[in-house]
Every structure is written in C-alpha cells, then in structure tokens.
Design goal:
With 228 residues, the chain is an alpha/beta fold. 49% of the residues lie in helices and 12% in strands. The chain contains ten helices and six strands; from the N terminus they run βαααααβαβααβαββα. It is elongated. The termini are close together.
Amino acid sequence: MIQAVLFDLDGTLFDRTTSVAAGVQRQYARFTQALQGTPQAAYQERFLVLDDRGYVNKRVVYQQLAEEFGWPPALAQTLCDDYYAHYHDECIGFSGLRQMLAGLRALEMKLGLVTNGWEQIQRGVIQALEIEPFFDVILISETEGVRKPDAHIFNRALDRLHIDAAHALFVGDHPVNDIDGAQQVGMRTVWMRDAHWGDCPHADWRIESLSELAALCASLRAQTKSKR
C-alpha cells in the first residue's frame, strides 16, 4: 500500500520557468533607464536560455548578458544582486498545488520534499508557495550535503518518514535526477510531464497536471484494499 508521496520542487510543484520569466520582466522595469538600448524581449529570452532552468550560476548568466549587450561589469553585478534580492517576489505554483497536497493529506499520506539547490533559495520558495506545513520532511541538497540522483538523499528521506521504499511514490519532472534516482532505491515513480525533457517511458506513471495525483493515489489504495 502507498503510504507516502515524495516530491521534487522546481518544475514539479514550483513553476520556476514562469516565475523567473515574470521576475526578469519586473527586473527590467526596475532598471529601464540603466538598460536603455537593450530590448526587453531579447533580455528576457536570453536570460532564460542562459539560465538553463536554474542549472547555471547567475553570476555567469549576468556576465554573459553583459558581454552580449555591452553592459559595464558593474551593472551585471548590480542586476545579479537584485535578482537574488527579489527572487521570492514571484513564486508561482502549478495549478491546484495546495488542493492536491490537501487531498493527499486527506488520504492520510505522509509527504516529503526532496530538492536540489541552496537552502535559503529553496526554503524561501517553499514558504512563498505556502506549502511548508503540508510536509513531514523537507530535504534540500545544500543542507544535506548530497544531491539527487544520489541514492543517499532518497534513502535519507525515507528513513525520516519511517517508510519503506516499496510503500512510497516519488513525483518529479527530471527523468534522471527524479525518476532514475527514486527508482534505484525501490520507489515507484510518477513523472510530471515536461516538454523540455521529451518523454520518460520508464516512469511507472505519467501525469499532465497535479490534479491527477490525488486520484491516482486513491486508485492505488483502492486496488490494494480489493486484493486483501
């Protein structure tokens, strides 16, 4: 029987791409005078490309933007500092996020969150989304000293939940970091479809939206009870 559901954060619960795009748009508005000569659309588009869904250090991103658009180095540093100062102003969850978590809680599921990233950044996102109270355990790679897809971080989450891997689902968007990582420790997996990654045929289930998850878990529980 499924007793726990563990989640990735970025791209699974947190719509990072939409949030960052909105944040960069607001940043442009704050620095319109300093960025004269840099078209807003080009600025936003190049930022998202260079950012590579958060996998590239922002100082590197802004340095590259400065080279491409001819900014002075000091402006790149100022924009980078501003990015971090305002990062949590625009934190957008995927549709139905809190309703889905509440639905899983109603099924008496234990909930865990396992995310790569910096503690201050990811903790701020979790708080901005107002989802921290739903979770029994939250593991952030900087604090844990290990990153997905390393098996240790998944096993650590299961240990803290006091749940065997066979009774847990892991939900994520990254085929390697989330799906492969969770499967290697024995968890069943749910892939949150993301066109960026193409397909993930080896996931146990695939969903288009968070609203499908509570129904999936309820169905799995019903199947288990019918076999008793």
